[in-house]
């Protein structure tokens, strides 16, 4: 072979090598670029999904908390309503009883009157029968008189209007009752007006 032929072959080989290197470089760049873009698209949707999941979880937790609060409020409302109904049923006659107490007081005062003749005694007997009927009807509704004389003064049950000194009673003991007090079941509807020993 001549030198010219050798040179031509060498030049052709160099050209082919350059083309191969260029192709590899181009292919490598393309592959690398595709990998980077694939990673970016793979990372971004994953992050977006995570953010969306976190937002949905936060909304779900908020909705759960709101539901629990509403349920607690409803339970409290239902309990209050039931207690109000029970109290209303238990003390339904309180207004009527409070209005009747002055009439009972008047009956008691009238029956303490001395009977001078038969007609007055008959009238007092009739009043006593009416009084007993009223007291019985009130008892059926749960009304009881408050015991006062001889008992220790209780500010929840008694209203002290006077103080005195009586050797027959101990200190802080009720010595006299001016007006009867009454309980309706477990509620004081009128305290007793009393005199308390010092």
Which sequence of strands runs across the widest sheet? Answer: 1-4-5
Q: Structural class of the secondary elements?
A: alpha+beta
Mean pLDDT: 80
- Helicity range of the residues? 55-70%
Q: Which spans have pLDDT < 50 for at least 5 consecutive residues? A: 22-40
Strand content: 5-15%
Number of strand elements = 6
The largest β sheet comes out as: 3 strands, antiparallel
Cα end-to-end separation? 148 Å
Shape: elongated
Task: Calculate Rg over CA atoms.
Answer: 51 Å
Give the SSE order as H and E letters. HHHEEEEEE
Provide a count of the helices: 3
Give a verbal description of the structure.
With 198 residues, the chain is of the alpha+beta class. Helices cover 65% and strands 15% of the residues. The strands form 2 sheets. A 3-stranded antiparallel β-sheet has the order 1-4-5. Helix 2 runs antiparallel to helix 3. About 10% of the residues have low confidence.
Helix-strand layout with pairing:
Blueprint (H helix, E strand, L loop, with lengths): L2 H88 L3 H18 L6 H23 L2 E3 L12 E7 L9 E6 L2 E3 L2 E4 L1 E6 L1
Parallel strand pairs: 2-6
Antiparallel strand pairs: 1-4, 3-6, 4-5
């Amino acid at each position: 072979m001549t030198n010219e032929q050798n040179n031509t072959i060498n030049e052709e080989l160099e050209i082919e090598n350059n083309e191969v290197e260029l192709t590899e470089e181009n292919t490598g760049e393309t592959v690398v670029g595709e990998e980077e873009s694939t990673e970016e698209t793979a990372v971004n949707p994953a992050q977006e999904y995570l953010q969306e999941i976190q937002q949905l979880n936060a909304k779900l937790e908020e909705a759960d908390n709101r539901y629990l609060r509403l349920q607690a409020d409803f339970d409290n409302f239902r309990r209050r309503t039931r207690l109000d109904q029970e109290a209303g049923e238990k003390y339904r006659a309180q207004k009527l009883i409070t209005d009747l107490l002055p009439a009972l007081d008047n009956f008691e005062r009238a029956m303490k009157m001395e009977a001078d003749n038969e007609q007055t005694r008959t009238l007092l007997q009739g009043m006593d029968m009416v009084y007993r009927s009223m007291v019985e009807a009130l008892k059926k509704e749960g009304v009881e008189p408050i015991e006062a004389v001889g008992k220790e003064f209780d500010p929840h049950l008694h209203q002290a209007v006077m103080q005195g000194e009586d050797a027959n009673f101990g200190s802080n003991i009720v010595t006299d009752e001016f007006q009867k007090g009454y309980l309706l079941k477990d509620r004081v509807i009128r305290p007793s007006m009393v005199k308390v020993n010092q």
